[in-house]
Write a structure and sequence with these properties.
The complex is a heterodimer of chains A (424) and B (106). With 424 residues, chain A is of the alpha+beta class. Chain A has 16 helices and 12 strands. Chain A has a single domain, classed as Cytochrome p450, CATH 1.10.630. In chain A, the strands form 4 sheets. Chain A has a 5-stranded mixed sheet. In chain A, strands 4-12-9 form a 3-stranded antiparallel sheet. In chain A, strands 6-7 form a two-stranded antiparallel sheet. The two termini of chain A are 22 Å apart. Chain B is built from 3 helices and 5 strands. Chain B has one domain: Ubiquitin-like (UB roll) (Roll). Classes of the chains: A alpha+beta (424), B alpha+beta (106). At the A-B interface, helix 5 of A face helix 3 of B.
Chain lengths: 424, 106
Amino acid sequence: MKSIDSLEVAEIRTAAQVRAAALPLEELNPADPQGFVDDTVGYVFERLRREDPVHRSHSPIPGIDTYWSVTRYRDIMQVDTSHDIYSSEGGITLMDFPPGDEQKLPMFIAMDPPKHDEQRKAVGPIVASANLNNWQDLIRERTGKVLDSLPRDETFNWVDKVSIELTTYMLATLFDFPPEDRRLLTHWSDMATSNKLTNPDAPDPEVRMAELHKMLEYFTRLWNERINAPPRSDLVSMLAHGPATRNMGPAEYMGNLVLLIVGGNDTTRNSMTGGLLALHENPEEMAKLRANPALVESLVPEIIRWQTPLAYMRRSALVDTELGGKQIRKGDKLAMWYLSGNRDESAIPEPNRFIVDRERPRQHLSFGFGIHRCVGNRLAELQLKILWEEILRRFEVIEVVGEPTRIRSAFVRGFSHLPVRIPG
Amino acid sequence: MAKVTFIGFSGGANTVEVPVGTTLMRAATDNGVAGIDGDCGGNCACATCHVYVAPEWWERVGARNRTEEGMLNAVDDLRGTSRLACQITLTDALDGLVVSLPEAQH
């Protein structure tokens, strides 16, 4: 039986599909956050991949304006791997700020070599394989505790009680951040990705920056503690002692904190929710998984492809160049729409199906490719793997009892609410 | 055909035979050699096919290219003999090649 809720959702989807097909090509704007709230941006991408895969897009939002939408897997791969043509220095989101605006934070993901490589190396070892092995037991124990504490026979928000709880706890461990304050990390992550221009409900820029300064203050205390102690294997200590990062100014420290907090938090959080939703919507895939729990190995990359928790990354052309038959001018900005590339039938067989035993599940774009490829990808996979192993061990069913609420952002593709119920 | 031997991080050798012209990465993924993922499909863009070339083969395998250097820069267990398997094409001269796998890929 369909609830009224899902009937409304079906109507919204049909309307969006009609609209994406009827609009003149030049009016298609995949960065419109409404398409992410409704989860209908896929119709826009479908048409762009077919009719105009490198598309000159316009957004009415000031600061975004005109940009190129790169929608096919192979073109995205080309841009992502040509860092000498497509720079990250202009920032990783489409929003531009006036010169000197402190909202544009310096962080290593938004740098080119050699500085990028040096700063990345300062934090890379924390997610190296030796460390992952050390953490395996800790993550499993914590995941088990969180799952065992979930309410039974009562509707609760999976996003808050599981996805946020687990990823924020992990992040607190990486920073060696006081665990009792860990929800501050969630708060700062949400602040960092908030944007008043794309979401009227978001805090004003002044409020956002004031909160990020509180974050900086808190983390400066941790930095000062750790700079005066021998080097340890937490992120703050690694930044404070690393030759490429120990002389960072406050803005750069703030920027890199935002990068690590958002990168280690928002992304895996939304894959934890998106995976549950995808398996709920595909009961035959859930049945396959229950019959053969070893499929968790391919389930995890498939969830990450399916969710694509960061919908795009931005690049800026350093020179005049050509892409997919289009003339790109020096200074133009481009969105590599990972979300679209991950649904490109010319690169991924049956891309619109969620398949837990997909043949080459790891060939997705969600981590990016090239020198900026997600530094924490193995840790993200490990957290998801353990979560699903522990879920399968414990629960016969987790019922999704209502529609998800999606975040109003074209960058962070995620959820604020998913009502679920565990019988028992 | 060319024979290649992959030695796992915790020991254990796996010898496979593939047509000349195949990349070392494909030789592994097509034969289910554990530890070589090849997430980017051979675009020198993910560093999940990192191998150490046995010293006696290093000269014959040849030098890293520039893109490869950039990607190897980000791996956590780089050595002098590190290469990305997708950037090595197997030839008759490389018949018998031996490589080993880093800890990160097991």
